[in-house]
Write a structure and sequence with these properties.
This is Bacillithiol biosynthesis deacetylase BshB1. InterPro entries: Bacillithiol_biosynth_BshB1, GlcNAc_PI_deacetylase-related, LmbE-like_dom_sf. The chain is of the alpha/beta class and 239 residues long. Helix 3 packs across helix 4 (110-126). Strands 3-2-1-4-7-9-8 form a seven-stranded mixed sheet, with helices on both faces. The longest helix is centred in the middle third of the chain and has 17 residues, at 110-126. 36% of the residues lie in helices and 18% in strands. It contains six helices and nine strands.
């Protein structure tokens, strides 16, 4: 299977929070979209790796993606080194996405920026034919996605592109709330409370989408950054 869009982020729920509307939009339009989680999120204060996997599966079903896989790198302690890079290269060459979206290049959570750099380096190396990889005993061909973008997560970063997700906000929100151990904890929840479990966090998330949308005169938007200049073939496609 070849993907049109691959969202490759470090923790289960990063894809939904940062690009859930984008994923829903392109799935609805018939694009092949997949999510690759780098870690199981096993260091999270609430829930477990098992519950996170169950929630990630439920969120993937809500979004309607073609696939969701987990590379099971070590949450909090993965490094930008050969073993991790090759794991990512194999999955990129396997699914050959046209566009790849990954974590913010700088953020409150140190895993986000580190994962962004790791994926960025692996994307480049994936296009080098002398970087040799195999999958199921078969030599893979070199491949590099046409476009790589980064999420805007907790820390506000000026976006290079904003996508209108107004028609897909409800799907995005449902996919986020599939992570029942992580978000919208009730007042009688006796588990540890975190920055994201407070119901106010979802209001913040909605506010960010409204803020981004306002910049392009729509209700809800998702913003992304690029590490290179973006070109267009038709100025009339811009809004």
């Amino acid at each position: 299977m070849r993907l049109d869009l691959m969202v490759m982020t470090v923790h289960p729920d990063d894809a939904e929070l940062g690009a859930g509307g984008t994923i829903a939009k392109y799935v609805t339009e018939g694009k092949k979209v997949g999510i690759i989680d780098l870690t199981r999120g096993e260091l999270g204060t609430r829930g477990t790796a098992i519950t996170r996997a169950q929630e990630a599966s439920a969120a993937a079903e809500i979004l309607g993606v073609e696939l969701r896989e987990n590379l099971e790198l070590r949450d909090g302690f993965f490094l930008n080194e050969e073993i991790s890079q090759l794991a990512i290269i194999r999955i990129i060459r396997k699914y050959r996405p046209e566009v790849i979206i990954t974590n913010a290049w700088d953020d409150r959570h140190p895993d986000h920026g580190r994962a962004s750099k790791l994926v960025n380096d692996a994307v480049f190396l994936s296009g080098l034919r002398r970087v040799e990889t195999e999958l199921d005993g078969v030599t893979q061909e070199a491949f590099r996605p046409r476009l790589q973008l980064q999420l805007i997560q907790d820390k506000y970063i000026q976006p290079h592109v904003i996508l209108d997700i107004s028609d897909y906000w409800d799907i995005k929100e449902k996919s986020i709330l599939a992570y029942k151990t992580q978000f919208n904890a009730s007042s009688d929840d006796d588990g540890p409370q975190t920055y994201i479990s407070n119901p106010d966090f979802m209001e913040y998330t909605r506010g960010r989408a409204r803020e981004l949308g306002r910049n392009i005169q729509v209700k809800y938007g998702e913003g992304f950054t690029a590490r290179k200049l973006l070109g267009v073939q038709d100025l009339f496609d811009l809004i």
